[in-house]
Amino acid sequence: MLQFIRNRASVELLSRSFRKYNVPESSGQLLQDLGFVHMSMSGVFHLLPLGLRVQDKICRLVQQSMKSVGATQVSLAHLSSKEVWNRSGRWETSGRELFRLKDRTERELCLAPTHEEDVTQCIASFVESQKQLPIRVYQIGRKYRDEARPRGGLLRGKEFVMKDLYTFDVDGKQAQGTYRQVLGAYHQFFKAVGLPFSMVNADTGNIGGKLSHEFHYRSEAGEDTICVCPSCEFSTNSELLKETGLGKGHSCPNCKDELTLSSSIEVGHAFLLGQAYSSKLGANVEVDQRLEPLYMGCFGIGISRMIAAIANVTKDSKGLVWPTNVAPWKVLVVPSSMKYMAAAESVYDGVANVVGADNILLEDRSQHSFGYKMKDAELIGYPFVIIVGSQFERDNLCEVLVRSTGGRHRLPLQSLHQVLLGNFL
Q1: Which long-range contacts (CB under 8 A, 24 or more apart) does 90-97 make?
Q2: Given this model, what pLDDT does residue 253 score?
Q3: Which residue of 53, 143, 348, 362 has the smallest Cβ count within 10 Å?
């Protein structure tokens, strides 16, 4: 029946998708109800194919961002020893959120919630000269935190996926230059995701250091509150505002204008650590004939948290509205009835050759009505839906639906390629 130009095994068919098809009852649990994730237990989630595709798209953008600052990807062990955490002093100060365990020899370990200790100890073992600096290494991997009250699905769980970058410089001046460079790369990353964001001054907290910034999406689902001045560039986390005593009465300390307060979701964090870890873990380099601790920075992005944050920020009454660059698929091709399947196949092939086969999906399910399929497409939030029907066979016209705006465009196949590639994708 199917007569694709390409090998059929390489075609992304919706019928092969491993997901749920029930209409969600609660908009607050869209990711679970639509089969992007599955809750294994409180605070622990399995990523299903749709959720994994979104995560992979976010990771690709992260990798491009890290490449722009010359960072190399590594993969650090999930298990970390009590000894290295004792050297930094965080074994005791981390409290009950640290997952602690023992191996069969009674050696005390933890499941790493972050990797400052381990990466610093690793770098200390082979840095011998200033010529090896700067060093910038990052990883994308799972982290663990024993949350007392997991909530918000992927927003706050016991196990999560995070990107963490660690930088090592010879002195404070170079470390500050690195910090500014990475903040610039973060701005480019969040712009590529395609949603408005805010960078705010932040508290260094348990990680330590002398300077910190957070990246936030404004959302009623968020547990944080950020303060932004409408008149100048001042912005900060409300917790830091309280701790420092600045902006009492919600006024900006710079221009005295009233600060705008909004709920938000933290999705990124940057720390200029200085020598806090390197001095305790022996990460030194010779400077003017004496050993000096390296200057460090660490920079995180909550990968799995971003999936939930984006869903919360963009969802509407019809379902999810994924930004193009992180959508599980950018384009869905839907025949208006199964008798137009051959026409839909030809449109799929033509568009796939332009936008890439990994970005396009074909609606091939025969057991559902056209109305059901269109409602399902709105729920999932594909950025663009191409409808192929009688107009295509008669006039070579397709109808393109833009999920974010609700716009509809009737276009010939040749123009469809140009519009998708140039204006939409």
Answers
A1: 90/117, 90/206, 93/206, 94/206, 96/146, 96/148, 97/145, 97/146, 97/147, 97/148
A2: 81
A3: 53
Q: Please give, one letter per residue, the 3-state secondary structure of 53-74.
A: HHHHHHHHHHHHHHHHCCCEEC
- Higher pLDDT: 107 or 230? It is 107
For the stretch 333-389, pLDDT in tens is 999 999 999 999 999 998 998 888 899 999 999 999 999 999 999 999 999 999 999
Side-chain-side CA neighbours of 64 within 13 Å: the count stands at 14
Q: Which two tokens stand for residue 247?
A: 């902006």
CATH architecture of structural domain 8-24+320-424 = 3-Layer(aba) Sandwich (3.40)
User: Residue 235 forms beta bridges with which residues?
Assistant: 228
The residues of the chain that CATH labels 3.40.50.800 are: 8-24+320-424
pLDDT confidence bin for 398, thresholds 50/70/90: very high
DSSP 148: S
Specify the CATH number of the domain 27-314.
3.30.930.10
* 191 within 8 A of 341, measured Cβ to Cβ: no
Which part of the chain is CATH 3.30.930.10? 27-314
Tens of pLDDT, residue by residue over 244-272, are 666 666 788 888 888 889 999 999 999 99
CA angle 42, 308, 222 (to 5 degrees): 90
